Amino acid sequence: MTESVRVGQNGIETGRTPQAQTLQDVQFLTELRQQMLKFARLQLRDDDQAEDAVQEALAGALKNEDSFKRQAALRTWVFSILKYKIADILRYRQRVIATSELGDDEYREQAFMDGLFNSGGHWHKAERPSSWTGPQGGVHSDHFWRVFDACLNGLPEKQARVFMMREFIELESEEICEQLTLSTSNLHVTLYRARLRLRECLENGWFDPSTAEDATP
Amino acid sequence: MMDCKQATRLLSEQQERNLSRREKLALKFHVFMCKACRNFGRQMGTLRDLARSYAKGEDRIRGHEQSKDSNTQDE
Q1: The pLDDT of residue B64 is above 50
Q2: What domains are there in chain A, each with its CATH number?
Q3: Domain ranges, ordered by start, for chain B
Q4: Of A166, A135, A173, whose CA–CA distance to A152 is shortest?
Q5: Does B26 lie at the interface with A, CB-CB under 8 angstroms?
Q6: Which of A55, A117, A150, A212 has the most CB atoms around it within 10 Å of its CB?
Q7: Among A131, A142, A164, whose Cβ lies nearest the Cβ of B39?
């Protein structure tokens, strides 16, 4: 019996993972926390509850931190915990976001589209997107961000959630589909609608030349 | 010929997937002819940039927080 292969013992792959920065990395953590807060606030519309949910999600993730070698994986994980926390809270409030909002929503969306496009599929005259070159410079002012906030808050919840996962958390389409059990085409429509709404809201609230010209001091 | 509804849908969708050759061609043609959709297309890029700086940009509230030691951590 010579088969004494000495594996384990010192643990072949114990020790620190090469990039175990993850939750110890202050900058990463701070950024992550902010993204989570935005995400939670938008859905809960209650700052205290959002803070709590984020705190709990982070604490939960800390426990399992070792299993995450890459920050990207950790981020996905933390957000899926957060998602459950948010869902719990919403359920508790008797205000569940139904996963299949299709139904009533289709009428709403149809009406929205009809408001933008005529029966031939072309823009109604008044709705044609304009060029945003004007007050672009002031885009990063506090005032602009307040408008942006308001526009985000005006999105239907499902659209807001998908949009944020895509553009704030920068998840790939497949990941979002998986997490929310959406089909790819469903995801595409949802993002399309969110963007249509956001751009319209921003144009009316900020970029509209008629109001912008008057507003410039 | 492609209408504005279809064109805008593709202008959004190309941020998630590569369009087929045929789609690209039809879109290009439409956008060439249609100023509103051209604007829409540009806005898609702007929107993405804005969303990203929004998500990252709490600094506009916190200001620069360039401390050398790590005691800036808030409770």
Answers
A1: no
A2: 22-92 (1.10.1740), 104-215 (1.10.10.10)
A3: 4-55
A4: A166
A5: no
A6: A117
A7: A131
